[in-house]
Amino acid sequence: MRPLTPDDDRLLSTLPEGVAADFFDRFYFNLHGSTPDPLIMIGAGVYPGTGVVDAYVLRVDGGVQRNLRLGDEPGDLATGVLGPLSWRIVKPLEEWALALGPNPLGVEFDVVWRARTAAWRTEDIEVDNGRGGQSRFGHFFQSGRYEGTLTLDGERRDVTGWLGQRDRSRGVRVVAGGQGLHLWVQAQFADRSIAFMLDEDRSNQVIMCDGGVLSENGETDPIVSVAHRLQFDDGLDFRRGELRIVTKSGEEFTLTADGTFGGGFLSGGGYGGWHGKRHGRNHVAYDEFPLDGSVTPRNLDMPLTDRPAVFSLNGEQGAGVFEFAHSRSPRYTYRPSLDG
């Protein structure tokens, strides 16, 4: 696999030759302190084949998830500005600036994200596109620290030192492929990030395990296996779990995750088919999900969830995101792979 270059981090404004019109180029950031409350998620994407640019900002705190979605078509793919949201790559693979002005969400920010670990590039991901072929997209993620300010309902706070994971993906993605369980775990500790993707099919067989222990000193230790014992409720919502992780260097450890904070439903950000669609000029949409158990992965338009979570590793507490999707197919039953 070739190493990442600055061009892998720059959003494309023209459609690459020979690719489908639904090609996308997207980024995602999350922002949190030493606990995952509040959790802010920021994402945007460009679709050079259709001229669409869209974005979202999600806020999870106080027992509510608040969702802001922005779109424009035809949008200016090169400006890095969409309504109140703006972004700028200060230095590819190392530093991004993000800002959000007044909007219905009650959130504003002016921050700079700086990498604290190397970026981890996963294998290219291929899924059945439902049209008799395969769709493919590239993907990498990276941990960083923030500098700047965050305003919630008029209360301004300094978030310098807050942590967050970012994710970059580019290609053609279709939410299909017969997965049973999907995990994208990003556990942030003081000097390292434990970051990996795990996908299993509906017979509970691993189809992808890719990630690493990414240290602030630049070292990376690839993860070679993940065993899990996870608790899901009747709404297919994740509650708590244990992950037994083995790395290439031979290290073995158990990571626990508490996902009882609720929220992080990516349906609110448009992942259920809203992305890349034409919604008109200067589109703004806002809604809320109460986190009282009435909104669940089972009854949303899609189950993918970036759950704010507290992690524990050998007595050390960390915070971050436990992304999960439990298949709603009656042909799938979750089965732990961790004994005991």
Descriptive notes:
The protein is built from no helices and 22 strands. The chain starts with 23 loop residues before the first strand and ends in a 14-residue tail after the last strand. It has a single domain (6-326), classed as Beta Barrel (AttH-like fold), CATH 2.40.370.10. Helix content is 0%, strand content 55%. The protein has 340 residues and is an all-beta fold. Strands 1, 2, 3, 4, 5, 6, 7, 8, 9, 10, 11, 12, 13 and 20 form a 14-stranded antiparallel sheet that branches. Strands 14-15-16-17-18-19-21-22 form an 8-stranded antiparallel β-barrel.
Number of strands: 22
CATH class category label: Mainly Beta
CATH superfamily: AttH-like domain
User: How far is it from the N-terminal to the C-terminal residue, by CA?
Assistant: 37 Å
Number of domains: 1
* Tally of helical runs: 0
Which residues form runs of ≥5 with pLDDT under 50?
A: none
Give a short summary of the structure.
This protein has strands at residues 24-31, 39-47, 52-61, 64-72, 81-82, 85-91, 95-100, 107-115, 120-121, 125-128, 134-152, 155-158, 163-171, 179-189, 192-201, 206-215, 220-232, 238-247, 252-258, 283-290, 305-313, 316-326. The protein has 340 residues and is an all-beta fold. The two termini are 37 Å apart.
Question: Which helices and strands, and how do they pair?
Answer:
Elements: E1 24-31, E2 39-47, E3 52-61, E4 64-72, E5 81-82, E6 85-91, E7 95-100, E8 107-115, E9 120-121, E10 125-128, E11 134-152, E12 155-158, E13 163-171, E14 179-189, E15 192-201, E16 206-215, E17 220-232, E18 238-247, E19 252-258, E20 283-290, E21 305-313, E22 316-326
